[in-house]
């Protein structure tokens, strides 16, 4: 089988992998910011719940979390689940997992900001909301871009874990083709896809860093 034909057969799996990647970032990045606020809250209950959430999400395997999200509604609440729920379960599992990691990255960046900037903004008449999103947050983004980039690159590879609940992303498709054809070529093609995808993501993040004058 030619490489072109193989890539065409893997195309559907590629689309699914990219969809998981994009949707995870779209929802987990803002959710992570909200959780980071909870983690830094002065309210001990909110802070404890946020801290426990982050600890559980970071301390257990993503594969196990995907299984819990998919099978949990049936075994815990006796809710009937359909095959259509698989993709939604993957997105929910990935978003909940990555939001915890992004929350800690946000927190480290926010807490690194000098308190004098908050005081100066208050003197100039800025409210808390304006101070954070117009003064503090742009600086935080510059600081946290490298660790965010690392997590984003990891996400590209983690999309392969969707196979655990039978979602036909790139790895699952390659595995099925390899078994049917008794060939290693589907795995090689999948490896090329992940590698090129990671290179593209890394390049985009590098451009963003330069746009924000990170290296100056």
UniProtKB/TrEMBL annotation:
Coiled coil: none annotated. GO terms for biological process: amino acid transport. One of its GO terms (cellular component) is ATP-binding cassette (ABC) transporter complex. It is found in: Cell membrane. The chain crosses the membrane at residues 20-41, 87-106, 184-202. It comes from the Bacteria. Residues 14-205 form the ABC transmembrane type-1 domain. GO terms for molecular function: transmembrane transporter activity. The keyword rRNA processing does not apply. Keywords: Amino-acid transport, Cell membrane, Membrane, Transmembrane, Transmembrane helix, Transport. It is a multi-pass membrane protein. Belongs to the binding-protein-dependent transport system permease family. NCBIfam families: HEQRo_perm_3TM. This is Polar amino acid transport system permease protein. It comes from Acetitomaculum ruminis DSM 5522.
């Amino acid at each position: 089988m030619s490489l072109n034909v193989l890539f065409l057969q893997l195309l559907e799996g590629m689309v699914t992998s990219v969809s998981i990647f994009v949707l995870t970032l779209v929802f987990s990045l803002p959710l992570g910011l909200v959780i980071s606020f909870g983690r830094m809250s002065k309210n001990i209950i909110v802070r404890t719940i946020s801290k426990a959430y982050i600890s559980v999400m970071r301390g257990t395997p993503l594969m196990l979390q995907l299984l819990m999200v998919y099978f949990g509604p049936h075994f815990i609440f006796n809710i009937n689940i359909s095959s259509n729920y698989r993709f939604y379960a993957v997105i929910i599992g990935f978003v909940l997992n990555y939001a915890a990691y992004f929350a800690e990255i946000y927190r480290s960046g926010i807490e690194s900001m000098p308190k004098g900037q908050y005081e100066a903004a208050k003197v100039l008449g800025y409210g808390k909301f304006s101070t954070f999103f117009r003064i503090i947050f742009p600086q935080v983004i510059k600081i946290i871009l490298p660790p965010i980039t690392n997590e984003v690159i990891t996400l590209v590879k983690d999309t392969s874990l969707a196979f655990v609940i039978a979602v036909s992303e790139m790895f699952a498709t390659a595995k099925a083709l390899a078994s049917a054809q008794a060939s290693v070529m589907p795995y090689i093609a999948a490896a090329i896809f992940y590698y090129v995808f990671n290179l593209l993501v890394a390049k985009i993040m590098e451009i963003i860093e330069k746009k924000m004058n990170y290296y100056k």
